[in-house]
Structure to design on (362 residues):
């Protein structure tokens, strides 16, 4: 068998693309560690840059890469279902605090989606942008799925979700000073609701109670965003 | 066989969610309905099946790797972002600030209304 035949068969399968993706991510993670965890060296972004450079250098089409990595996208589904486990583990806390949790979940989710849609319109952003921005506070797998269903671009939504996480944690300090009456439960819940996984990480650094409430908020707001976003977008059409 | 059960449970819930969403033509991701189904199932059963937590933690830990292909997609098609990044950034900062403030405020207001004592520390393990 000639070399070309060997590679041709392999390149049509997901194996080389998955290997390249995992390898790039591991390298990017190591780079992130070496840079002292600097927020601008997010492993996902660095790994994507490495792969884009690799694709450009070798001339492989992006479509081949996208098709080859479809198995990774499939895993987002089971990962979303798995959000039920942290929720189940906090069931007593949910039952105990259900009124403030439920009220601020509905308020927070509505404000998150409506405010970003209104502001994006105000600034004259395109319809695709607005649809891709709407679920930006939800956890990544849910936000990308909602974006896909409502007519946004999941890849754009991914960038917005990440940016929202970074922005949310950066805003925590200034907002905390202006909200002197806020307790750690409310602050943590708000951080997880507005800034998903990145906010949860920041909340755990602040206080363990805040972290627990942030984790709850992330899972609950994922579900709330999935339910409410299509309705809100219909109202704003 | 038993090692496969937690994985089967996740997939069955997702499949059930996808079926429900398609039958009802609901504008919802099937996996989100699957998540609600798994939560309800766990509540009814009253305990966590062995191995489910391990597989869930594994999935959630490797979540970032699943986003790399989307990152490649956005970088190979970046002119959208290049043209409008200023408006996008202002939109995201303002919306996120309003969201955090509204959530903190409504949580605090309702918590004071029902005047819950601040005794959640022992529960929040």
């Amino acid at each position: 068998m000639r070399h070309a035949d060997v590679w041709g068969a392999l390149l049509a399968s997901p194996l080389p693309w998955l290997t390249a993706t995992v390898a790039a991510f591991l390298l990017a993670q190591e780079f992130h560690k070496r840079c002292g965890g600097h927020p601008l060296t997010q492993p996902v972004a660095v790994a994507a840059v490495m792969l884009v450079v690799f694709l450009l250098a070798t001339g492989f089409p992006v479509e081949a890469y996208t098709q080859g990595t479809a198995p990774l996208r499939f895993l987002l589904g089971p990962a979303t279902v798995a959000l039920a486990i942290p929720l189940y583990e906090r069931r007593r806390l949910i039952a105990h605090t259900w009124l403030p949790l439920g009220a601020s979940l509905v308020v927070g989710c509505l404000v998150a989606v409506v405010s970003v849609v209104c502001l994006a319109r105000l600034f004259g952003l395109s319809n695709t942008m607005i649809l891709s921005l709407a679920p930006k506070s939800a956890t990544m797998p849910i936000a990308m799925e909602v974006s896909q269903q409502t007519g946004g671009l999941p890849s754009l939504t991914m960038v917005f979700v990440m940016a929202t996480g970074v922005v949310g944690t950066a805003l925590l300090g200034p907002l905390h000073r202006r909200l002197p009456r806020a307790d750690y439960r409310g602050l943590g819940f708000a951080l997880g609701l507005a800034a998903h996984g990145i906010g949860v990480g920041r909340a755990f650094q602040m206080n363990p109670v805040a972290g627990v409430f942030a984790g709850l908020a992330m899972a609950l707001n994922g579900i709330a965003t999935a339910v409410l976003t299509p309705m809100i977008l219909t109202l704003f059409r | 066989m038993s090692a496969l059960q937690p994985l089967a449970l996740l997939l069955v819930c997702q499949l059930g969610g996808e079926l429900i969403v398609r039958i009802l033509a609901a504008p919802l991701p099937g996996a989100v309905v699957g998540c609600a189904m798994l939560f309800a199932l766990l509540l009814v059963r009253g305990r966590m099946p062995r191995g489910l937590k391990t597989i869930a933690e594994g999935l959630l830990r490797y979540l970032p790797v699943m986003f790399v292909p989307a990152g490649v997609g956005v970088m190979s098609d970046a002119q959208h972002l290049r043209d409008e990044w200023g408006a996008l950034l202002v939109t995201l900062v303002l919306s996120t600030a309003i969201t955090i403030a509204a959530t903190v405020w409504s949580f605090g207001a309702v918590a004071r209304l029902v005047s819950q004592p601040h005794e959640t520390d022992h529960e929040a393990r």
About this structure: The radius of gyration of chain B is 21 Å.
